[in-house]
Each structure stands twice: as C-alpha cells, then as structure tokens.
Specification:
Length: 75
C-alpha cells in the first residue's frame, strides 16, 4: 500500500492534478469530520485503522494539537 501511495504521489499526473498529498488530505478530512462530530454530539463513534491513530500519521496527535485530551489505553 505504501509503495503504491508513494508512486502515485511522486508522479507528474498527481502533481498536475493536485493529488500529490492524498494521505495528508485524507487525514485532514477524517480529523475534521471526527472533530465536528465530537463538537456536536454527546457520543460519537469513528473507525480508522489503528496504524493511522498511533503510527507515523498519528491522527490522535491532530486532536491533541486542537486542544482535545487524548488518554492512552491502559496497559
């Protein structure tokens, strides 16, 4: 998956059509939608692969940067 994403991002087609930052755009969209749901509902459920929450993209870090409190799961 990562190799395909990198190949697409690095292509002239992607740069010409503004698709060279798809992972960042997808992350931003997901975080924006999840934050909007948290701000308007008492209870919210969202699903995303764990590697995106805690991995190199660190979606949870985006919530910390927005001022949300993020609790680590118990060990």
């Amino acid at each position: 998956r990562r190799a395909c994403t990198v190949a697409l991002e690095d292509s002239a087609f992607a740069r010409r059509h503004g698709f060279n930052d798809l992972p960042q755009r997808a992350r931003q969209h997901w975080v924006d939608r999840a934050a909007a749901a948290l701000d308007t509902h008492a209870s919210t459920f969202a699903a995303v692969p764990l590697r995106l929450l805690l991995g190199e993209e660190a979606y949870l870090e985006a919530f910390r940067q927005r001022g949300y409190t993020v609790h680590a799961p118990p060990e």
